Amino acid sequence: MEGETVAANSRPVSANCDPPANAKANSGSSSFEEMFKVFAKFGDSKSVGDAITLSNSDKWFKQAKVIDGKKITTVDTGIYFKQIAKTKKALNVKEYNQFLEKIATNKKVELDEIKHKLSCCGPPATTKTTTAANTGAVARLTDHTKYTGTHKQRFDESGKGKGKAGREEKQSEGYVQGYKEEGTYEKVHETTTASN
């Protein structure tokens, strides 16, 4: 009984992505096209999702576990992608289907199996991305509550910078246009003559 519960709990997260009974039936084409758009847009704010680049395609393949490092590799996807794309940097859905057919025939893998894995892998994940370090010196330098002196005055209670209002501006008036900081000449020269 215990072994059965472990096996039941080790199922993939997306339980509705079990292989279809009839592998030839292409029932997941609409979800495949939706996933195509999602991965085509990923990382490019200007993209509308009508064409996918090689790097996004490789990310999709890796997430769907189509690229296993043995039968299908990123070198293979690069070769077949460029055969279809020629000089273009991205493939539309029709060309991408040709790309998948080319991989399936050359690597002797079922096309429906590849499409099923791609349509069931979920949206692009950012699990292996680098996060900002907030330990040690970084925490001390970025915490505005620990600032002292005049630096403390540059931030409000919420930690937002005050900009110019947080700094004391020098007087910029004088009796002629190029003369700035009126009254500072005497202060500077009094201290130098007093020390002599």
Automatic annotation (TrEMBL):
GO terms for molecular function: tubulin binding. Residues 1-29, 142-196 are annotated as: Disordered. The lineage of its organism: Eukaryota, Metazoa, Ecdysozoa, Arthropoda, Chelicerata. PANTHER family: P25 ALPHA-RELATED (PTHR12932), TUBULIN POLYMERIZATION-PROMOTING PROTEIN HOMOLOG (PTHR12932:SF9). GO terms for biological process: microtubule bundle formation; microtubule polymerization; positive regulation of protein polymerization. This is TPPP family protein-like protein. Pfam families: p25-alpha. One of its GO terms (cellular component) is microtubule. Residues 153-172, 179-190 have a biased composition (Basic and acidic residues). Gene3D superfamilies: EF-hand. Belongs to the TPPP family. It comes from Leptotrombidium deliense. InterPro entries: EF-hand-dom_pair, TPP/p25.
